[in-house]
Automatic annotation (TrEMBL):
One annotated GO molecular function: metal ion binding
PROSITE patterns tied to this protein: ARGINASE_1, ARGINASE_2
Residue numbers spanned by region Disordered: 1-32
Key words, A-Z: Hydrolase, Metal-binding
A Pfam family annotated for this UniProt entry: Arginase
Family of this protein: Belongs to the arginase family. Agmatinase subfamily.
Protein name per the record: Agmatinase
GO BP annotation list: putrescine biosynthetic process from arginine, via agmatine
NCBIfam families per the UniProt record, alphabetical: agmatinase
Length: 369
């Protein structure tokens, strides 16, 4: 990226002074915007350089469209730990790519107000207390009518996070679209009801999420066993194995999954376990399973979901930075959030009668396409 300043040119041509140059800005920076006018590797590490707003009173006063909430918790993982470092890595190590979405032709933050609401406090070793705090913080955000985008953390955090959302928008009225290599619907693992392999069962058992609007995409490998799938079938759950994506293609399968998830449902929670990606793309995760999706398909799926569904919340989990290489996992997880932001911004613009400002030669992307 070459973003030389006009002032630099003047200096290079021997005109003007060699005094300090203003930081480049991809967008107009507000006074409360610690990272917007600085490169991603400097200044305060908020998510995408967005305003830092950890207090509920500040959120209530501002009422942003979206608030990023960290859930740095990883003691429910069955294999490799490290997802507690996911929120920090997504804030500090993801490369901030700019703010203009090329395919949608939109300057994202001109249309969508997004803040970083900080982390739910997750005291070490205390699953119940951590989950209670996650549920409370996410619920507080959702009750304001703000869309929480939760960055984990292991997948156990979806239990409290989606419960908090269901409490806010309607218990049992939330559908869940779930991208993952694993179904995470076990009853109990090693005596743990709150394992990262059990949250989806807890959500259906409690009635927080409807079984018939619970749709999974990308399952593969060697788990869970048939009795778990039998339970899932009894709940009316639907799932699309990675094999089906391989056979039919991602676009068609995702369109069907969206239709199933929103059928008769007025609110949707999107949960993305980064291990839905092939470990070649996303090595930094707790339970890597070969044979997964590629980032292009996942990012387009997420964009389509945020364009086409009544999305009220999303989470991105299982990013384990100690196992990452070259920040590939961190960057893919970060872009999942960026696709959600861009699609929601596009909806705002469409509702206001605005049109896309597209790079030449690209057709405008529509909802439902
Ligand atoms: Mn998984």
């Amino acid at each position: 990226m070459c973003m030389a300043q006009a002032g630099d040119r003047d200096v290079a041509r021997g005109r003007g002074s060699a005094g300090p140059v203003p930081p480049y800005a991809a967008r107009a920076a507000g006074a409360d915007d610690p990272g917007a006018d600085a490169p991603g590797y400097s200044g305060l590490a908020t998510f995408a350089g967005l305003p830092w707003m950890p207090g509920i009173d500040d959120l209530r006063a501002r009422r942003p469209d979206v608030a990023v909430v960290g859930a740095p918790f990883d003691i429910a993982t069955t294999h490799r730990p490290g997802a507690r470092f996911g929120p920090r890595a997504l804030r500090a190590q993801a490369y901030n790519p700019g703010t203009y979405h090329l395919d949608l032709g939109i300057e994202i933050f001109d249309w969508l107000d997004v803040v970083d609401a900080g982390d739910a406090h997750c005291p070490h070793g205390l699953t119940e207390a951590s989950h209670r705090n996650i549920r409370a913080k996410v619920g507080d955000v959702a009750r304001l009518g703000v869309i929480p985008v939760i960055i984990g953390g292991d997948h156990s955090i979806t239990w409290p996070a989606a419960s908090g959302v269901a409490e806010a928008v309607g218990w049992g009225e939330v559908g869940l679209l779930h991208f993952d290599a694993h179904a995470d619907t076990a009853d109990i693992i090693d005596g743990n009801l709150a394992s990262h392999g059990t949250p989806m069962r807890r959500l259906i058992e409690s009635g927080a999420v409807r079984g018939r609007n619970f749709v999974q995409v990308g399952l593969r490998g060697y788990w869970p066993p048939p009795d778990v799938f039998a339970w899932m079938r009894e709940q009316g759950m639907r799932w699309h194995l990675m094999h089906e994506i391989w056979e039919r293609g991602s676009r068609e399968v995702v369109a069907e999954a969206i239709a199933q998830a929103v059928d008769g449902c007025r609110a949707l929670y999107l949960s993305v376990d980064i291990d839905v990606l092939d470990p070649g793309f996303a090595p930094g995760t707790g339970t890597p399973e070969p044979g997964g999706m590629n980032p292009a398909d996942l990012l387009r799926a997420v964009r389509q979901i945020a364009l086409d569904t009544p999305i009220v919340a999303a989470d991105i989990v299982e990013v384990s930075p100690p196992y990452d290489h070259a920040e590939t996992t961190v960057n893919s997880a970060h872009r999942v959030a960026m696709e959600i932001f861009a699609a929601l911004a596009h909806r705002r613009r469409s509702a206001a009668g605005g049109t896309a400002d597209l790079p030449a030669g690209l057709p405008e992307m529509k909802a439902g396409s």
